[in-house]
């Protein structure tokens, strides 16, 4: 790596309540993958006071301040450290993360191949299983033992054959049955009394047994992949690998939407079987589709998430989930219970951030670079309130790879602010400026159209791309976001990694911006959302920038949802606008001329998005894809919603497994990889540039 460098220096280390914080000299040894510390720099030649292996560690910046971070080793040991300032913390965190990733990946690469290991499979079953005898000396450790044993010279380890894997599958099926019996026995205990189903030790037993079975299933999947790779190319067409579940013919491997048929299960609803098997031919699903805005109808869905409902009733499930999590643990691969879900996909949530299209369109009408930057900040800060549905913190559906969402907004031209001044009302209906003529010379419509498309372009890591444009105003925005979730104790933190760019083609300006972190607080009582972190907005051409701070609530006192920021001219370092308030309530903008404007977000008019009816949507469009989950949640049928959700997730895992086995890369539909980001395949800046070139050539 370009940044694999050994660094050293003083950091404060938290020892205990009595000793508190102490300065220690830390050394990052990249070659060995170690973080060591000494009493001081002079004692560096002595044995270190402490050492952490970084392979498998989690490096977590703290949300309590901008200086503190933690290093959570795979062994369970933790260092809580504090740098002198935010810049130094970022330096240490980034270097530690790079070293951790390098050595974690190295472990996987350097592991001995499976053919050099021996597998001893003990007798199946347990002492209580009918018809199964168990030796007295057999214990839980020997039930499924994978060991590194030295073999006599000249002895070769036999390659695992399918019948051996069938034996393993049968053993694991028995273990899974016993684990289900254990869970059922615990859940059948009374809710009150001496021993209850909410007993902390029993919850931990449930979590441990489930984690063990998940681990064994992962190992079994690795064995399947190893055997499939060894036999690759030697199987005749149509051969079925009988130990894969669900059983799928090799001739029908899933390739970016190629048809695949799952066995119909009569005990599942037809809608669940449809979710497991729905897939379109490759040439249909992966070709970009032009959505006609005239086919879209004004959205009538209004799913507010203000009811605790099932969250109150499922407290034991939340406790069970928490018992499986570690502080700082990455939640990307953790399957969360259905009852905490919103009734919309994450892709649709990104669209709901555009619910004030009049403010978005008004940005390009600013008469000066200063005014356009201020207008963008105003729009940016008003977008988060409507993006959240209700006061209760619930989680949108995790989009599956290839999922898309389309919508549009129509905005009367009379309701969009023009270049009437910085602090003019963004919703004034009396302001009308000179509007551009239709490029084709046709009669102009009395409204602007903002079109939006989003796509889940990656599953691991989970990355979404979204794009919006207003052709009439020559403006568009392109963004990609990687959501990283972490468990923080009694809250969950979501970091929005990525970048967006607003293009004002009329002015030749580009505004880059980032997104704040989100936190779900008080997850055991009444969960609520707050935003935190610092975001920056920059326009390189004009030299204007904005710095916005979303403040998390202090432990004692302080206001909720507070935000502050300023817009300045970088060349002169002059602040031209300051903002303060709450991002979900009232914002106060103070301009350089001394004037002040207040924006009450609860009273801002919301423009409903326009969406195609379900029957006109493709099978991978969000609302059609998740329709059965959404309907079940609306009906309050959590079990049915969970069944539909599991069917979608199983289909995604099976498709991902088959693509890995056949080494088939995923092809996106609307977005193209561009460096570290993703760009819409036909952005407005390319369309306009091509049209201008064509016009120049014709002249």
Which descriptors would you attach to this protein?
single chain, 699 residues, alpha+beta, PH-domain like, 13-stranded antiparallel sheet, 14 helices
Description:
Heterodimer with OSBPL9. Keywords: Acetylation, Endosome, Golgi apparatus, Lipid transport, Lipid-binding, Membrane, Transport. Residues 4-101 form the PH domain. Residues 117-137, 416-433 have a biased composition (Polar residues). It holds the Pfam family PH. With 699 residues, this protein is an alpha+beta fold. Among the domains are: 7-109, Roll (PH-domain like); 296-416 and 446-680, Beta Barrel (Porin). 27% of the residues lie in helices and 26% in strands. It contains 14 helices and 28 strands. Strands 13, 14, 15, 16, 17, 18, 19, 20, 21, 22, 23, 24 and 25 form a 13-stranded antiparallel β-sheet that branches. Strand 19 (517-521) and strand 20 (528-539) form a beta hairpin. Helix 4 packs parallel to helix 13 (638-662). The longest helix is centred in the first third of the chain and has 31 residues, at 200-230. It starts with 6 loop residues before the first strand and ends with a helix.
End-to-end CA span: 51 Å
Q: Which CATH top level class of the domain at 296-416 and 446-680 fits?
A: Mainly Beta
Structural class: alpha+beta
Number of E-state strands: 28
- Average pLDDT taken over every residue: 75
The radius of gyration over CA amounts to 29 Å
Biased composition (Polar residues): 117-137, 416-433
Organism: Sylvia atricapilla (blackcap)
Subcellular location: Endomembrane system; Endosome; Golgi apparatus
GO biological process, one term: lipid transport
């Amino acid at each position: 790596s370009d940044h694999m460098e050994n660094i050293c220096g003083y950091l404060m280390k938290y020892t205990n309540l009595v000793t508190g914080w102490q300065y220690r000299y830390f050394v990052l040894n990249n070659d060995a993958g170690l973080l060591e510390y000494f009493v001081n720099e002079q004692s560096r030649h002595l044995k270190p006071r402490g050492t952490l292996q970084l392979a498998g560690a989690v490096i977590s910046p703290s949300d309590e301040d901008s200086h503190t971070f933690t290093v959570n080793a795979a062994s369970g040991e933790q260092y809580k450290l504090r740098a002198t300032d935010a810049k130094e913390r970022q330096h240490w965190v980034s270097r530690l993360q790079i070293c951790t990733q390098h050595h974690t990946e190295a472990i996987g690469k350097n592991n001995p191949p499976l053919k050099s290991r021996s597998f001893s499979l003990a007798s199946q079953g347990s002492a209580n299983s009918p018809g199964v005898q168990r030796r007295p000396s057999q214990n839980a450790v020997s039930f499924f033992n994978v060991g590194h044993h030295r073999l006599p010279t000249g002895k070769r380890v036999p390659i695992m054959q399918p019948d051996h894997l069938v034996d393993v599958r049968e053993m694991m099926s028995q273990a899974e049955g016993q684990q289900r019996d254990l869970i059922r026995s615990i859940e059948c205990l009374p809710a009150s009394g001496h021993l209850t189903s909410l007993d902390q030790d029993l919850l931990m037993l449930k979590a441990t047994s489930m984690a063990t079975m998940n681990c064994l299933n992962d190992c079994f999947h690795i064995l399947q992949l190893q055997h499939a790779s060894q036999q690759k190319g030697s199987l005749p067409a149509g051969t079925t690998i009988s130990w894969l579940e669900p059983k799928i013919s090799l001739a029908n491997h899933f390739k970016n939407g190629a048809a695949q048929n799952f066995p119909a299960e009569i005990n599942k609803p037809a809608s669940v079987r449809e979710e497991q098997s729905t897939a379109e031919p490759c040439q249909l699903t992966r070709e970009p589709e032009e959505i006609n805005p005239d086919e879209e109808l004004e959205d009538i869905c209004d799913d507010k998430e203000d009811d605790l409902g099932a969250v109150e009733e499922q407290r034991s499930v939340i406790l069970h989930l928490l018992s499986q999590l570690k502080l700082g643990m990455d939640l990307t691969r953790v399957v969360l219970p259905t009852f905490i879900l919103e009734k919309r996909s994450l892709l649709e949530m990104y669209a709901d951030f555009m619910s004030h299209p009049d403010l978005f369109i008004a940005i390009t009408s600013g008469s000066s670079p200063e005014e356009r930057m201020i207008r963008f900040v105003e729009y940016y800060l008003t977008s988060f309130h409507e993006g959240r549905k209700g006061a209760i913190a619930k989680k949108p559906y995790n989009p599956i790879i290839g999922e898309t969402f389309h919508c549009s907004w129509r905005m009367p031209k009379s309701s969009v602010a023009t270049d009437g001044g910085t602090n003019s009302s963004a919703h004034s209906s009396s302001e009308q400026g000179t509007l551009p003529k239709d490029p084709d010379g046709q009669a102009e419509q009395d409204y602007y159209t903002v079109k939006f498309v989003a796509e889940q372009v990656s599953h691991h890591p989970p990355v979404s791309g979204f794009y919006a444009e207003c052709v009439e105003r020559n403006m568009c925005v392109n963004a990609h976001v990687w959501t990283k979730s972490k468990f923080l104790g009694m809250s969950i933190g979501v970091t929005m990694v990525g970048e967006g760019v607003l293009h004002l083609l009329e002015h030749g300006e580009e505004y880059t911006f980032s997104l704040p972190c989100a936190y779900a607080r008080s997850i055991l009582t009444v969960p609520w959302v707050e935003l935190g972190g610092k975001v920056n907005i920059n326009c390189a051409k004009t030299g204007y920038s904005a710095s916005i701070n979303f403040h998390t609530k202090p432990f004692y006192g302080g206001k909720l949802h507070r935000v502050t920021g300023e817009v300045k001219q970088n060349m002169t370092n002059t602040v031209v606008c300051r903002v303060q308030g709450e991002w979900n309530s009232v914002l106060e903008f103070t301009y350089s001329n001394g004037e002040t404007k207040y924006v009450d977000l609860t009273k801002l008019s919301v423009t409903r998005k326009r969406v195609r009816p379900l029957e006109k949507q493709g099978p991978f469009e969000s609302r059609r894809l998740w329709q059965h989950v959404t309907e079940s949640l609306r009906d309050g049928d959590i079990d049915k919603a969970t069944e539909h959700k599991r069917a979608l997730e199983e289909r995604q895992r099976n498709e991902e497994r088959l693509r890995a086995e056949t080494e088939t890369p995923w092809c996106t539909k609307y977005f193209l990889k561009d460096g570290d980001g993703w760009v819409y395949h036909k952005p407005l800046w390319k369309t306009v540039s091509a049209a201008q070139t064509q016009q120049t050539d014709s002249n």
